[in-house]
Amino acid sequence: MNFKKKYSKMTIMLALGQGVLLGIAAVAIVGFILLKTEKPESAASPDVNVPASGPASGQAGGKKDEAKSEKAAAGAPISMYAKQHGVFSSKTSATTFIADENLPKAAAVHADGQFYVWSALGLSEKDADPAGEEGVFRKQVTVSPLACDSGEGELLRNVLGASQISEIQDLVASRKQTAGEGKKDAFASNIAAITAFTDDLNIIKMHVLAHYSETGECVKLDF
Asked: How far apart are CA 153 and CA 166, in angstroms?
C-alpha cells in the first residue's frame, strides 16, 4: 500500500509562509512581555535632570538644622560678674530698696521670678568689685542672648561684649541709619536714655541687661 501523498508547490509555500508568520508573532509577543516587565524598573529611576515636586528630604532637614544652629549661636552664653546689693521677690520691693539705700545708678534685674539689685556688670571680676562695701558682694552670672523676634538679642550680645563705649555708640549710629531718617529705633532710644546719666561702661551694660530682662524674650540668665 502506498501512503505517500503529493503536495503542490503552492501548498508548500503557504505552509512555509504560515510558519514564518507564526515565528514572527511569537517573537513579538515575547518582546512585548519583556518590555512590560522592565517598565516599572525604569519608572523607579526617573531622569535626574527632571526636578522633583518639592525640596528633597535631606535639604528640608538641612534648613531646620541650620535654623537650630543659628539660634544656638545667638544664645551662646557669656560669663559675667555683677555687683549685687540684694535680691527681692517683687520689682516694687527692689525699687524701694534702691531709693532707700540711695543707689541712683542701680537697677532691678529680673531673673527666675526674682529681682536682683545690681549697680555694675562686667566681663571680669574687678568690674564688679564690691570694694569692701557692707552687704555688697560680687555675683557671677551666665548671660545667654537669645534669637528673639525683635532681633535685638545679637545687639545685646554686642553691648555686653563691648570694651569701649564707642563700640556701643557705633551700634546706635548704625541702627539709626538702618531705621531711616525721622524714624525712632527702640534700641537707640534705650541706649540714649542710659548714657544720659552715666558714661560708666559697666553701668551701661547693667542697665541694658536690666531692660531686656523684663520680658526675658531676648535674654536668659543663669546663676
From this structure: 19
For the question of whether the overall pTM of this predicted structure is more than 0.85, the answer is no
Q: pLDDT tens across 152-190, in order?
A: 999 999 999 999 999 999 999 888 888 777 778 888 899
Q: How far is CA 92 from the centre of its chain?
A: 35
Cα(93)–Cα(137) distance, integer angstroms: 19
Q: Are 96 and 154 in contact (CB under 8 A)?
A: no
Give the pLDDT confidence of 18-68 residue by residue, as tens digits: 555 555 655 555 455 545 545 444 333 333 333 333 334 444 455 444 444
Rounded Cα–Cα distance for residues 163 and 61 (Å): 39
- Give the residue among 94, 140, 138, 142 at the shortest CA–CA distance from 116: 94
**Per the structure block, which three cell numbers stand in for 71?**
539660634
Say which residue the cell 560708666 belongs to: 200
DSSP type of residue 128: G
What is the Cα–Cα distance from 207 to 123, expressed in whole angstroms?
A: 15
Q: Treating both helix axes as pointing N-terminal to C-terminal, what angle do 186-195 and 201-213 enclose, rounded to 10 degrees?
A: 140
- List CB contacts of 223: < 8 A, sequence separation 6 or more: 111, 112, 139, 140, 141, 142
Extract the C-alpha cell encoding 8. 503542490
